[in-house]
Amino acid sequence: MPGAFARLCPVFDRLAARNPHHEVHLLPLLAPPGEIACDVGANRGLFTYWLLRNGSRVVAFEPNPHMVRVLERRFPDHGRGERLTIVPAALGDTQGSATLHIPLGFSPLAALDGGLAEQQGVPLERVQVPLHRLDDCVEGNVAFLKLDAEGYELKILAGALEMLARAQPTILVEAEERHRAGAVASLRHLLEPMGYRGFFRDGAAIAPIAAFDPARHQARDALNAEGSRVLPGRTYVNNFIFAARPQVIAGLEAMAA
């Protein structure tokens, strides 16, 4: 199954490239070529693939053992050079281990938050996975940090405070009110005092995060019944950019003008 899924992944890569509003098109601005990028919650490797294409040195973190095997099939040369390292672990604000909740069967979906996983209404497999702090995992300054952690993003950032203060990486983070009430506001509360400014893609436009309205931008009826896909003709915003580097802020502001 991992091999078959890995063979399908290039289809998803091409679909992202064909969507002019997908965040992969912002990577040349957000992730400077030659610098370190962390793909946290790498899943099937969509952002890992495009970051490598962009010239980044990538550290991909993925706790779901099913998806780790997919990544290893997709990128068989990982660990043999400086371009890609795959770390089969979860990230948080402490070192140790954690329980990962995975829908039974081969599934790319998983969550450390058991309550969130149970909302899917399917039987779950529970596995123990290593848990690390990002501050303890990566040597050198990280330029870009992509987070997709199903409601666990604040704990991951709490384990990366030294990195954030030192390197000020640009952050692309998924945050949804349905997963955690006040998700976007809590990110602003953490990051803005550190010099970060928030943005999001609103259709074709880049908007300042102050314009984000949960009732309008994350309406539940914009998604299908499973909550896994945006309905045709609807808009649903769940990715947010936080930038502290002046050249990135200037680039985003130019796109918002």
Automatic annotation (TrEMBL):
Keywords: Methyltransferase, Transferase
Keyword match Repeat: no
Coiled coil regions, renumbered to chain: none
InterPro entries: FkbM_mtfrase (IPR006342), SAM-dependent_MTase (IPR052514), SAM-dependent_MTases_sf (IPR029063)
GO terms, molecular function: methyltransferase activity
SUPFAM superfamilies: S-adenosyl-L-methionine-dependent methyltransferases
Domain (Methyltransferase FkbM) ranges: 39-197
GO BP, sorted A to Z: methylation
Alphabetized Pfam families for the sequence: Methyltransf_21 (PF05050)
Top-level taxon: Bacteria
PANTHER family the UniProt entry points to: EXPRESSED PROTEIN, METHYLTRANSFERASE, FKBM FAMILY PROTEIN
Protein name (database record): FkbM family methyltransferase
Annotated source species: Xanthobacter tagetidis
